[in-house]
Write a structure and sequence with these properties.
With 496 residues, the protein is an alpha/beta fold. Helix 1 runs parallel beside helix 5, helix 3 runs antiparallel to helix 4 and helix 5 runs parallel beside helix 6. The chain has a domain of 233 residues. The chain has 16 helices and 16 strands. The longest helix has 19 residues. The strands form 5 sheets. It has an 8-stranded parallel beta sheet. A two-stranded antiparallel sheet has the order 5-6.
């Protein structure tokens, strides 16, 4: 079997969108779409008028026309929303559904993968966060309906994913254990999904995608191979310099003088031991250069996963103003990335690019009212009456505490869900436009190095520029003069 040398990272919610993945795959490497919050993203794209008709084109290809039709009828607005008109608030995910939310997950994952695969025959992948468990079953089925070739998952221990993929090949029911705070042995914490209840007509068997687990330790690699309920086809070994959520340091959390987590020898993966496991692996975090690719292969890796370099290409889904602002900082040598140990409600360290006008600015963050209306990072917990409840440490403090949460767990927490929507230009507006959500951009530590992909005289770059550079076909020297005159809008408010 032939594997890709370069895997494009599945970044954020909608940064690694179908356009980016389609372009990377067309050029011969593995394009990957982010599977986070695709239901919300589809709904908002439709409410914005679906420029280009791409969502409607993919909806027309969905095998259950009635399911696609109600979604189009409910969310599509010809010409888009009016000024200061808020997006429709969708129902939140729960252990049991609800049904319309599950259908949105199936359809939206199908749409994103279908568009990423459109017009070529090369492989396409989708990336999920194990921590966001409630959408998993419906989401993976929708991606497989569209013919996804790879499923990648990290931010947890995804030992039950291979078995789900196996069962979906023949449209069989699948289960997934939900982590419920306070649950005891014998409590029902299992989620169920029955494909025939959503796509009742006879369909041919689906292709079983290759499953790559994203890990950060030798122990986790061994655990996945020993305890997973199906085949683990390979690993992506992600270091602490990678963007997004990082695995916390092993042992007691210690912060340096900047307030960032300190990683030590215990956090270094022994690649020789990984190689002995006999499965292909890719290295991620700081490999976004020709030298990085070569060093990974020399260490026995099949290739590399690269996120940051692709996040700022013309084809990525990041909002153009954030993109230009951070490119300007990278070219000026002022780009800074902070590994925030408390910002994410997941409890995982979260890489944040410092940019004026975003929630990385404490003054901006403190002005935002604590609102949790998307709820992807909510934690299921067992209430005193035995029923399930849902809480998020970024929601209003009094609400969180009333659900049994600890006040100290709310300090510094940020609404990552709403920020990720703003990162891609789908920011919610509230109170008649008086409050508009702002982004919180996450990148890897090598943000300051993206200038290597930008040709002299230009202030942007493409996927082709990245791949040509990484594969040794093209090389741009670091700029001797700053090309930032056209990028002075960094820090200005985001406008659509």
């Amino acid at each position: 079997m032939s594997f890709p040398l370069i895997i494009q990272g599945g970044m954020g919610a909608g940064v690694s969108d179908w356009r980016l993945a389609n372009t990377v795959s067309r050029l011969g490497q593995l394009g990957v779409v982010s599977g986070t919050a695709l239901d919300e993203i589809l709904a908002r794209r439709l409410q914005d008028g679906d420029p280009g008709g791409h969502m409607r084109r993919a909806l027309a290809a969905f095998p259950m026309s009635a399911m696609a039709e109600w979604i189009r009828n409910k969310y599509y607005i010809a010409g888009g929303r009016g000024a200061n008109v808020p997006y429709i608030t969708m129902a939140k995910h729960t252990k049991e559904g609800p049904r319309d939310v599950q259908e949105m997950c199936v359809v939206s994952n199908f749409v994103e993968v279908w568009l990423a695969r459109e017009g070529h025959r090369n492989a396409v992948g989708i990336n999920y966060l194990e921590k966001i468990q409630m959408p998993h079953l419906a989401s993976m089925y929708g991606a497989m309906l569209a013919g996804v070739d790879y499923v990648l998952m990290g931010a947890g221990i995804p030992i039950r994913v291979p078995g789900v993929l196996d069962r979906y090949v023949h449209h069989e029911p699948a289960n997934y254990t939900l982590h419920v705070f306070g649950a005891r042995e014998g409590d029902d914490t299992t989620m169920h999904f029955v494909p025939r209840e959503f796509v009742p007509q006879d369909l041919p068997p689906l292709k079983r995608p290759i499953f790559l687990a994203i890990i950060s330790s030798n122990t986790l690699a061994a655990t996945m191979l020993k305890k997973a309920n199906g085949k683990v086809d390979g690993f992506i070994i992600e270091g602490q310099t990678a963007g997004g959520h990082n695995a916390p340091p092993r042992g007691k959390m210690v912060l340096d003088e900047r307030g960032e987590p300190v990683y030590g020898e215990r956090d270094v993966v022994d690649l020789a031991r990984i190689a002995e496991l006999g499965v292909p692996f890719w290295l991620a975090g700081g490999y976004g250069s020709r030298q990085g690719v070569q060093s990974a292969v020399a260490a026995g890796a099949t290739g590399v996963q690269i996120g940051t370099a692709f996040a700022f290409t013309d084809e990525s889904g990041m909002h153009d103003q954030y993109k230009r602002g951070l490119i300007a900082k990278a070219l000026a040598g002022t780009a800074r990335v902070f590994t925030n140990p408390i910002a994410s409600p997941t409890g995982f360290p979260f890489k944040v690019a410092e940019l004026e006008g975003t929630a990385s600015d404490s003054a901006v963050y403190l002005k935002r009212p604590r609102i949790c209306d998307l709820g992807y990072l909510r934690e299921p917990y067992k209430k005193e009456d035995g029923e399930l409840g849902y809480r998020c440490s970024a929601e209003p403090v009094t609400v969180y505490v009333s659900k049994g949460g600890k006040t100290e767990d709310t300090v510094g927490r940020q609404c990552v869900c709403n920020a990720l929507m703003a990162n891609i230009g789908l920011q919610q507006t509230r109170a008649g436009g008086k409050h508009v959500e702002v982004g919180l951009v996450t990148t890897g530590d090598d943000l300051g190095e993206i200038g290597r992909f930008i040709a002299p005289g230009k202030s942007s770059y493409t996927v082709a520029d990245v791949l040509d550079n990484l594969l040794g076909k093209r090389r741009f020297e670091a700029p001797s003069t700053l090309r930032v005159e056209a990028l002075q809008t960094a820090g200005a408010g985001i406008r659509k």
